[in-house]
Amino acid sequence: MTDEPADVSRTHRSHRLRWFLRENALVWGFDLLAVALWIVVASEAFLRFGWPRWTYYAVLFCGLVIYVQVSPGWTFPDQREP
Fold it and tell me: Which pLDDT score is estimated for 6?
């Protein structure tokens, strides 16, 4: 047996991973910005109004869950709808 198929497969996966990371960089940047903005806005509101800390965590969690539900997922470019 030769190791050539494993090397070819590993190289293919490596190229495919780099392609995935490059194509989704803008989506990740937007996701990071949206989550950071949500945390800052929620933190400012809770500090300003003096609401209980446990509700802060509930609001953060619920906001992130809603964002995940409405935002597009991370996909390979060849799996996207035209």
Answer: 61
- The angle subtended at Cα 39 by Cα 20 and Cα 57, nearest 5°, is 110
Interacting residues of 73 by C-beta distance below 8 A, sequence separation 6+:
none
Tally the residues of the chain: 82
Low-confidence stretches of the chain (pLDDT beneath 70): 1-8, 76-82
CA angle in degrees (0–180, nearest 5) for 56-42-47: 75
Distance CA 69, CA 66 (A): 5
Residue pLDDT, tens place only, 47-70: 999 999 999 999 999 999 999 999
